[in-house]
Amino acid sequence: MTGMTTAQGARARARNEVTAAIKEEARRQLAADGAVKLSLRAVARELGMVSSALYRYFPSRDELLTALIIDAYDALGAAAEKAREDAGDAPPAACFTAVCEAVRAWALAHPHEYALIYGSPVPGYAAPETTIPAAARTGMVLIGIFRDAQQGPGLAELPLPDELRPEAERLAADLAPDLTPEVAAALVAAWAQLFGLVSFELFGQFNNVIEDRERFFRYAATGLAHGAGLG
Amino acid sequence: MTGMTTAQGARARARNEVTAAIKEEARRQLAADGAVKLSLRAVARELGMVSSALYRYFPSRDELLTALIIDAYDALGAAAEKAREDAGDAPPAACFTAVCEAVRAWALAHPHEYALIYGSPVPGYAAPETTIPAAARTGMVLIGIFRDAQQGPGLAELPLPDELRPEAERLAADLAPDLTPEVAAALVAAWAQLFGLVSFELFGQFNNVIEDRERFFRYAATGLAHGAGLG
DNA sequence: CCGTTGCAAGAGCACTGCTCTTTTTTGTGT
DNA sequence: ACACAAAAAAGAGCAGTGCTCTTGCAACGG
Fold it and tell me: What kind of fold does domain B1-58 have according to CATH?
């Protein structure tokens, strides 16, 4: 308990470096071949260590995947945040579509990472609590846009069926207390629908259907914004 | 080349029975543990045969999965068609939401089958042409609803940006020549967004966000219908 | 300077998909 | 009825997987 900080620091530094190298190589393999093909043994092989040594750093393949999931959520969140910043104080609808485009662009650039977080979850694998904050980042960006819109004049009246009011109120309270229930509900719906558009494009459902994906997405995102009361 | 039809018939019957049994057991395992855990050896074991014998019926695991994919598309398509029929000549918006609910219900009842067709595709696996007709069934139901709506008075004017007009015209020509480009574009967008809603619920993105999934979905589906010009 | 602790390595288990070879069954044409 | 070719099943085997357990080694700390 005395001066062991440097000692621990030495060990810990090495440990962190190896951990980072493992994650890096794993991400490389993920990007190349997808999550199902990610193999601990292959990662170890590439790093010149034996497979069992890897278990000192990640207790299981799932834990390694979890680390990659968090990174992916963070990367997507960062991309969304950057798009929001770049949009500055443009009209809310423009901010919204800008963030949508950023999400799509990130997904197209990192298809396997996208599939890891928004594709079918691995059965028997429940995303641990640790992923929640990273996963929330993108949603937070959208919430911010609607928060701003609510203050300005750019937000249309939104219908909210009586039967959904309690849920929408709970939702608003949980998500962002300064949003009206109407806005909160519309926001969540738009959020899910946005990822429907991206997933369909990425997972091949638009093959032989949509040619001009770029323009179609812009059109659909605009519709999304409109449906959620923006613009 | 003479009367070998009966001979082939006898062999073929046995063959079909075994093929069906394999698919049945595979579907059982798929429903139980998901696609990644589906194992040829386990299927063979359960059927009391040795694993290599299975390759006489399905040349690879992927081919078996393809068969299950087609079945899943067909089952979902059938569910959608049934919902459409049950809705009869209700207003288009009601028909639309009814089909949406049917899609969601089927997905909730068959999560792994849903994940197989609308989740992340297995990398390196390209859905062969054979899946296309089955995959189109659900889309056809939606197209039918909009076709009907276009004849009645229940279809609102839809905006279509100039830049998307060529694509929308091509889309309408490919998909359903009797739909206007405006309707075709809106339809495809709604289609993708519908599956975004279902996937988010099924893949756990609504955990800790939406409680009352039932009502929220109804609300969102209504919004989808409205956004596509219905009601 | 010696002991604890952290790490690496090796061997091994129970699996997987898939291939190749050998044996058995089976439906039939003569 | 029987011999024969085609189809099916079985077996062995290869290369790979996640994961565990034991053993050796090296570095750090009192």
Answer: Arc Repressor Mutant, subunit A (1.10.10)
Minimal CA–CA distance to A201: which of A100, A132, A76? A100
Q: What is the pTM of this model?
A: 0.94
Taking alpha carbons only, the member of A155, A157, A142, A159 closest to residue A195 is: A142
Tell whether B143 is within 8 A of chain A (Cβ).
no
List the single residue in B with minimal CA-CA distance to A199. Answer: B196
Q: What is the per-residue burial (b if ≥16 Cβ within 10 Å, else e) of B110-123?
A: bbbbbbbbbbbbbe
pLDDT digits (tens, 9 = 90+) for A28-53: 999 999 999 999 999 999 999 999 99
Q: How many CB atoms lie within 10 A of CB A97?
A: 24
Q: What is the CATH number of domain B68-227?
A: 1.10.357.10
Residue B148: per-residue pLDDT: 95
Q: Does A129 touch chain B (CB under 8 A)?
A: no
Interface contact A123, partner B, CB < 8 A = yes
Smallest Cβ distance to B204: which of A35, A121, A188?
Answer: A121
Boundaries of every domain in chain A: 1-58, 62-227
| The token pair that represents B142 in the structure block | 């939606």
- The minimal CB distance from A212 to the residues B34, B167, B215 is found for B167
CATH class entry, domain A62-227: mainly alpha
* Residues of chain A predicted below pLDDT 50: 1-7
